[in-house]
Specification:
This protein is of the alpha+beta class. The protein folds into 2 domains: 9-50, Winged helix-like DNA-binding domain superfamily/Winged helix DNA-binding domain (Arc Repressor Mutant, subunit A); 63-143, Alpha-Beta Plaits. The protein contains 5 helices and 4 strands, in the order αααβαββαβ. A 4-stranded antiparallel β-sheet has the order 2-3-1-4. The relative contact order is 0.15.
Length: 162
């Protein structure tokens, strides 16, 4: 199976929807929810994992509980879009533990980063590291005030889903 969504049947989509909402449930519970017995359900899950459709499982941690009080985004423009420069920038920022997401983007900049900081001094230090980096032309930061929605994964069932 490839990552092509057209090769996923309705049962695969049910499994993905359930796992995306609760990746900690037992295989027995998952099988019950999707209407299968446990062995074929487990085979489907393993097949989805091996195909790279299920990329992994993780715990969602509350940042503030661990002292990460600030989340902010940085829109970064580089001096050039030469491949070597883009790749060097990616290597640099993906090595920073505070960078939680790094996306190369189109329109208005070259990269969009999501970062966490312990306080405003830490946020300012991270912004200074970015603006002082070789080949960085401009940085615009946007601090998160409140998050109304923070959904994991992608729509599988319902509006917008196949």
């Amino acid at each position: 199976m490839s990552n092509d969504a057209t090769e996923l049947d309705a049962t695969d989509l049910l499994i993905l929807d359930e796992l995306q909402n609760d990746g900690r449930m037992t295989n027995v519970e998952l099988a019950r929810r999707v209407g299968l017995s446990a062995p074929p359900c487990l085979r489907r899950v393993r097949r989805l994992e091996e195909a790279g459709v299920v990329r992994g499982y993780h715990a969602e941690v509350e940042p503030a509980a661990l002292g990460w009080e600030i989340t902010f985004f940085a829109l970064v423009g580089l001096e050039t879009q030469k491949l070597a420069v883009l790749e060097a920038f990616e290597r640099m920022v993906t090595a920073w533990p505070e960078v939680r997401e790094c996306h190369m983007i189109r329109g208005g900049g070259d990269f969009l980063l999501r970062l966490v900081a312990r306080d405003t001094a830490h946020e300012n230090a991270l912004t200074s590291r970015l603006t002082g980096a070789d080949t960085v032309l401009r940085v615009q930061t946007l601090q998160v005030i409140r998050t109304a929605k923070d959904a994991v994964g992608v729509p599988i069932r319902g509006e917008g889903a196949a």
